[in-house]
Amino acid sequence: MTKLDSNNLPNHIAIIMDGNGRWAKSKMLPRAIGHKNGVKTVRLITELCSKMNIKHLTLYTLSIENFNRPKSEINNLMKLLSSSIRSEVDKMKDNNIKFNIFGFQDKLTPEVNSELDYAILETKNNSGLCLNLALAYSSRYEIVNAIKNISQDILDKKTNIHDIDENKVNDYLLTKGTPDPDLLIRTGGEDRLSNFLLWQSAYTEIHFSNKFWPDFNEKDLNKALIDYQSRVRKFGRIKN
Question: Of all residues in the chain, what percent carry a pLDDT higher than 70?
């Protein structure tokens, strides 16, 4: 069996945490129980990445499209988010984890935003793993928003159309200041990106897992990392 090389780990791991609802359905449990067990996996994977000295971990937590789900499920998710974030702040501080979000906070409840702002403030000086939650996030929405803001700055003569390049676009994205993901993991057996980090994942290595997110564990994470280490990353160039 191939052994994990601790000297060749990705700088940034992004994860599409899929399968909470189907996990619950397979056990004839309410979807809310699936989401609660998904939070346990978030805690586990975050702790593992922190111990491995991964620098950035971005978790696709809630897309803008998810708001089309039944209102009762969204309300339950908002409550779970509020309670989970508050309960994890002390652990993040103890483990030197810096918390951040990528998303459009105006789409979240005031209660959730209050907890998010509190967690960001309390962990802002930490220097270990940067834990990013993609909340009320969708990549196409993000890109359109960036185009609008760039266009407005051109009209306001704050920037020049000839100055626009990839670095300039990056400055207008929600992920500004965060490196592109090296590895993207999707759980749940689906093989698509679901509108997640489309610009940022141009040269990201992608690993698909059949495990539902609540069942994803250390062995599965190591499998994804070993898969990543087997790839030859050429970024469009010819590898000698």
Answer: 98
